[in-house]
Design goal:
By secondary structure, this protein is α/β, with parallel strands linked by helices. The chain has 15 helices and 15 strands. It is globular and about 75 Å long. The chain binds pyridoxal-5'-phosphate.
């Protein structure tokens, strides 16, 4: 039997004169009693409904660069100060278009983060190029020092992901790529509107891609977009996933690739106009949402950083996109409490949105990347070497990541406060009365 006694009231556990109540996992009352979800994204407002209805009656398929496709691409490109924008039906296909844009193929090596969502790298497996994984730094982003160690004469490019919305160390990465004459690609799917020293992510490299899938900051439900300043990258990307009208409209007839304009390269990645209409409406709110997220994230950091076992996201000199608020649980400072038990105790408080991200996992653990010869033997006739390598920082980040949503609207403040309250309630017991929780483990 686990201990059910009321925790001793410690004066340090007082908030505004009210003693902390017993943890729900120990029989106390929950912090939140309403059933989830407590975080709903995107918010379907009347304005969203209206743009969908308007688009529905305008057209639901756009063959060339016109209408809402042109409007969104123009707005997105000019917001980033980039020359070309190319919408597609998913972030995955936008990333694939970046790789195809660079013309990567068998024999080429691309330095990739191992800690990312797999779609940063899975499209590369359809080019035949070899992903070369890199460990991460303490913030979960690709480690700059590790990139340099992995460069070989075959390295053609580096791809980075701004994990959970916290930008990578772009100035250092740009400098490595310049020094070694490597192309640089950014997966900005977590980081719409994020900045490094005032410069937007997605503007540092040769091309960048964003997912516009339902969870993303700017979303059409499904969708993706790629940006580049490079005409050749753009034409190749265009031909890879579009054909006929749009290619004929944009690729000059005297360009060597114009002969493919009727058919493209064989695939179709066109975006759906209804999705783009939604995303276009969302885009007009980006700055206001990021400001609100920043203020909620600061509030969370102020509350959580007093606990040495909660490592809060560090974003100095950067503006995060706050796709999520991802902390690390540091079990070396948690008085014997494991991340599993912490998670159980927080969930028991009714904080159902706390998540330990599982599918965003180190890629060196996934067979598509370690054994591609079994899935795609025509492109990978020989086993790859990644298997033997270890990536301790990425494994650690993955095992200890605790993810919370970052709410975006002023009317969600009460929910943010309840999440802070529930986590602080559990954290105080870990700090001051860990034996109460440890009893659960020992009496299992
Ligand atoms: C970092 C990252 N890259 C790529 C993708 C793929 O985007 P999509 O689901 O739109 O294909 C995602 C989607 O979750 C992502 O998080």
């Amino acid at each position: 039997m686990s201990s059910r006694r009321i925790p001793k009231v410690d004066p340090r556990n007082q908030r505004g004169g009210i003693a902390m109540t017993q943890l729900a996992i120990l029989g106390g009352s929950k912090t939140i009693n309403t059933k989830g979800p407590h975080f709903v994204w995107p918010r379907i407002t009347e304005a969203v409904e209206q743009v969908v209805i308007r688009q529905l009656h305008a057209t639901i398929s756009i063959y060339d660069r016109s209408g809402v496709i042109e409007e969104f691409e123009t707005t997105f490109a000019s917001y980033h100060g980039r020359r070309y924008a190319l919408l597609s039906n998913s972030g995955t296909s936008a990333i694939y278009s970046m790789y195809e844009g660079l013309g990567l193929g068998p024999g080429d090596e691309v330095i990739c983060p191992t800690y990312t969502f797999f779609a940063t790298v899975s499209p590369l497996m359809h080019t035949g190029a070899t992903p070369v994984f890199c460990d991460c730094g303490p913030d979960g982003n690709i480690s700059v020092a590790e990139i340099e160690k992995r460069i070989t004469p075959r390295t053609k490019a580096v791809v980075v992901t701004h994990m959970w919305g916290v930008p990578c160390d772009m100035e250092a990465i740009v400098s490595i790529c310049r020094r070694h004459n490597l192309r640089l690609l950014e997966d900005c799917s977590h980081a719409h509107g994020a900045k490094v020293n005032g410069k937007l992510v997605g503007t540092f490299g040769d091309a960048a891609a964003w997912s516009l899938q339902a969870q993303k900051t700017i979303t059409g439900g499904e969708g993706g977009i790629m940006l580049t300043d490079n005409e050749e990258v753009y034409y190749r990307a265009l031909l890879q996933g579009r054909y006929n009208k749009r290619c004929k409209q944009e690729i000059p007839v005297d360009h060597p690739l114009a002969i493919f304009s009727t058919t493209g390269f064989g695939l179709k990645f066109r975006a759906h106009p209804l999705a783009v209409a939604i995303a276009h409406e969302q885009l007009s709110h980006l700055e206001e949402w990021l400001a609100q997220r920043q203020s909620y994230a600061e509030k969370m950091t102020a509350a959580f950083s007093q606990f040495p076992f909660l490592k809060t996201p560090q974003v100095s000199g950067k503006r995060a996109g706050w796709y999520a608020y991802v902390m690390q649980f540091d079990a070396s400072h948690s008085n014997g409490i494991s991340v599993d038990l912490f998670t159980k105790a927080v969930l028991a408080e009714g904080l159902v949105e706390l998540d330990r991200p599982r599918s965003t996992m180190p890629l060196h653990r996934l067979p598509l990347f370690t054994e591609p010869e079994k899935a795609l033997p025509r492109l990978y006739p020989h086993p790859v070497k990644q298997k033997q390598q270890s990536f301790p920082a990425a494994d650690y980040f993955y095992e200890n990541a605790l993810k919370l949503p970052v709410w975006s609207f002023p009317d969600e403040e009460d929910m943010v406060n309840l999440y802070i309250e529930g986590i602080v309630k559990v954290a105080l017991v870990i700090r001051d009365n860990p034996e109460l929780l440890l009893a659960i483990e020992t009496n299992k």
